[in-house]
Design brief:
Radius of gyration: 20 Å
Structural class: alpha+beta
Oligomer: single chain
Shape: globular
CATH class of the largest domain: Alpha Beta
Length: 325
């Protein structure tokens, strides 16, 4: 059983414990977080004693339940049970491995590949491919359907992902995500000429009030939202389209797509959030690619950075758009 330490950042102040865990540990679902809480695996440190101790197990802790509202500055400890053997099927599917060692691997996911098995996609996923490639040697924190998955990309988003081979690596990488220490930058083609050259979008995201399959920017203080921050830089403008770099500070579901659509500049080809365009013969899908990934390697402590070239579909979309200008 692995114990992970989580500091409650100001943006989570007042969140229920199960929501906080699901958001902080990323690949632990809310139902899995509730089970951990119900089983007594989540505790709150006595912050005064904790500050005087260098070892977490030396301070007093109290068990908390799912209804506990976390407060900024609290230290939460979550015990992760030993991994359960994955129920997903190992399949020999080609992978573009950018980097690999004994603890982790970085993969360049193609557009159209689902990350993990779910309803309607029980095979052919990235997890199925990873189970074959790693011979089952993946972290179990994500549960039986998401072994090794530290963070996700949408099916129609291509690019870089880091995958954990063991629980210690998974916990360390998830902690970097929670503390906003992992760098993730995407390139996207957006509809419309984005006016500002560089800007920061700090708008909360929550479940769409009418369409539960979508997310939305929600400014109603009564709505259940999560802090969402995206940094945008315009790389090039061509006619009624803009090529942008989007650097994430947080990693909410559909974050870049929702933020840009809210500003009136949806990602080109995004049928869900209004970026579908067939002008000038354009019939490509969603033009969004995770181009850069950086983190501190949990074992060596060294900074690791990876870049992915723009895929063929992305380059082709830019050619089509340039030809229409």
């Amino acid at each position: 059983m692995t114990t992970v330490e989580l500091a409650v950042l100001p943006g989570f102040d007042g969140f229920r414990a199960d929501v906080f865990l699901a958001e902080s540990l990323k690949e632990i679902t809310r139902s899995a977080a509730q089970k951990l809480l119900n089983d007594g695996h989540v505790t709150l440190a006595d912050t005064q004693l904790y500050s005087e101790s260098t070892l977490y197990h030396a301070c007093q802790k109290k068990i908390i339940g799912k209804n506990h509202r976390v407060k900024s500055g609290e230290i939460i400890f979550c015990k992760i049970p030993a991994p359960v053997p994955s129920q997903a099927l190992a399949q020999e599917i080609p992978l573009n491995i950018v980097y690999e060692d004994a603890d982790l691997l970085v993969v360049d996911k193609p557009r159209g590949m689902v990350v993990h098995p779910a309803a309607g996609h029980y095979s052919g996923t990235l997890v199925n491919a990873l189970l074959f490639h790693c011979r089952g040697g993946l972290s179990g924190i994500g549960g039986v359907s998401r072994p090794g998955i530290v963070h996700r990309l949408d099916k129609d988003t291509s690019g870089l992902m880091v995958v954990a081979k063991n629980d210690a690596t998974h916990v360390a990488l998830a902690g970097q995500l929670q503390r906003r220490e992992m760098g993730r930058t995407y390139n996207a083609v957006c509809v419309g000429a984005v006016r500002e050259q560089r800007f920061r979008i700090d708008l909360p995201i929550g479940r769409h009030p009418r369409d539960r399959k979508k997310m939305a920017v929600l400014t109603n203080t009564a709505a259940k939202t999560r802090v969402a921050v995206t940094n945008i830089e315009v790389l090039e403008r061509f006619g009624n389209f803009s090529l942008v770099a989007a650097r994430l500070e947080t990693g909410r579901t559909h974050q870049i797509r929702v933020h840009m659509a809210h500003l009136g500049h949806p990602v080109l080809g995004d049928a869900v959030y209004g970026g579908l365009r067939q002008k000038a013969g354009f019939t490509q899908g969603q033009i969004l690619h995770a181009i850069n990934l950086s983190f501190t390697h949990p074992s060596s402590g060294e900074e690791a950075e990876f870049n992915s070239p723009l895929p063929e579909y992305f380059e082709e979309a830019i050619k089509i758009i340039r030809g229409a200008v």
